[in-house]
Fold each of these.
Amino acid sequence: MDEEGATGYRRVLAQLRADVLGVLQPGDGLPPERELAARFGVARMTVRRALDELATEGLIDRLVGVGTFVAYPKRSIHVQLTSYTEEMTRRGMIPTATVLDFGTVAASDHVARQLRLEPGDPVVRYRRLFYADGEPMSVDENFLVPHHVPGMVRASPPPSLYRYLNEEHGLVIEWGEDTIEATSATSSLARLLKIDARDPLLKIERRAYVGRVVVDFSISYYRADRYRLSVPLQRPRRSHQGNRPLLRDR
């Protein structure tokens, strides 16, 4: 790129970044490349390079066949022992939750395998939709073995599952194992999270332990446009339990 082209690129990039950060709102659409090229008096390739840079910075989302939009700020999922309420409050947001399902169901093959049960064995299912500032953020589904939490389904759904396990049953979640993958939204998840079907989601499955016993198995679906994953790392230390990440409260 010659000096004139480089100057034009820097000018376009600076102005678009200023628009995205100071004028437009998350979710607002940007004009097509040809309109931006005419506005700045540069080639479409120059505009495309500037948009690519903004997308790399996470400031815009480019959806093929749909358009270019100002990205929503992503909230970090910190794998640590803090509740959803504490985490969102720390970020200056108002957390709330809606209970979607709470009761006893028959364990599927997958859930039974995670909880070391037989398929069809009864498990407590606790499914919630989490919000921040009134916007849906994630759908969480927890499964527990009934004899670990006697009487749980006869009471009201607890606002904080880990606090309830500790205070009512003396179970302190000590460590866990997470499986993290990308997936797409089903129609039902899309309706709950107010996104389109097949939009990207971050899926996290967790086995939470007290000692060597799996007390809770959970499946969480996070909006990929609102979250990024942050995992603290450290060198392993010698322990009969190994190096265990801290847990975010459910």
Amino acid sequence: MSNAATRRANSHFKRLPKGSNGGIQLLLIHNVEHLGKQGDLVEVKPGFALNYLLPQGLATIATDHHKRMVEKHREKLREIEIQKLKSYQDQADELAKQSITIEANANDEGHLYGSVGPHEIVESLKSVDIHLAQDQIRLDGPLKELGLYTVKVHLHSEVEASLKVWVVPTVASETGEPGA
């Protein structure tokens, strides 16, 4: 590659504001778990900024103009965040009142032939008009026995809910049973 081509390729990186640790300074447009909240000034590695945060619209380049705008609207952002947290807390309270039942094939000792995981829990919640993503269901491992489980549901970085999940044996039909 010629020097001119190299300079053009690297000029994109030079325009991004550098942080004190050599990373890129960005202003978060949305909350990003394990990084920061909306309006925070963060410093990240160039690859994370260019390949994830900027293309996904989660952050913008931290220009002086953007910083002034965030300072100007910081109180409004705080109010919006408080409303979101209240909404998530209300959803957590509703989930705590819920109890879902999932049928599964099991042997006489109550051990499941398969297991119940986040997919089955999410599908069961859809039947009661609650829509969650599978990664919001936090299990220590798949449910492999019949019984009542309290499952954690991650709604927000600051809000977690509990959901009661009953795993019950599948009701066998009378036809096809040996000796019936």
Amino acid sequence: MGTQTDRLRAMYAGGHGNATARRFARWWNRALRLGLLPPRWVSLEVVGRRSGQMTRFPIGMADVAGQWYLVSMLGECNWVRNVRAAGGRATLRRRTARPVWLVEVPAAERAPILKRFVEKAPGGRPHIPVERHEPVAAFEAIAADHPVFRVLPAV
């Protein structure tokens, strides 16, 4: 398992995807637009903070107590900075586009969301340094390093 985990982490060295990660992202975005994956998998579309162009990121969502959340498995990465720069305005896409407002969750409230994400998003597990079977308390130590956004309908 360690070797596979190391390979997956290496695809995102420095918080940026390498050429292989970008190819996978394009493939996942196409699959998501066609609705081929479970509903927790979406394409996040947000305006780039530098380019002003729409950027797309395939991403898994965590559900806790009837609410949906986006979790940054890579910590402070491009999509997080873009969402912040856009004031939380974004679009989630699965077959159709759904405008949303993303509200950042304070670090003190992230632990149960991070645990659920690790339980439900196998692709995120190598990047979150806590095993999915650990108690919620174990996730509190890393909560500040992994931004989480609550998904709300656009107003």
Amino acid sequence: MGLLEDLQNRSGNTCELCGATENLQVYEVPPVSTGGVDGSLLGCSTCIGQIENPDTTDSNHWRCLNDSMWSEHDAVKVVAWRMLNRLKSEGWPQDLLDMMYLEDETLEWAKATGEGEEESEKIIHRDVNGNILENGDSVVLVKDLKVKGSSMVAKQGTAVRRISLDYENAEYIEGKVDGQQIVIITKYVKKL
């Protein structure tokens, strides 16, 4: 059985955040280290669109978190926590956050993307030209890079798609080059 089928069975074929039944898809909760059923949720296009693009966030849509924040699945709780933190200036999300409890490991995962931190505390990843890098961006290497621990050399001009950010160090990102997951220093990449 595939990941989509597992999530459909787990969720009863509904969005695990808002309960919608249309346009459902798998959402891997960043940073994508666990993946699979435990690191993913089944979400509707509305929820996923607003998670990935904060400018489109409709706070009334997220009142559904009043129910979904109590999910037994960590991936759902992590996204609920992040969205409540993003919206806490509205007032009502702060009340829900005050009631919510996450195990230490789950809370660490929830905080991994910097959601809930003040802007001055967030780690910002920038490419060689100073452009801000986000999870899922595509970059191109600006010089040949020797990959530590292997004989591989990542060539200048190689595109690295769907990067993930290291939330502890602003100079590190991760991506796949020739099928191998590697850490890349941001000063050697240019955002596409």
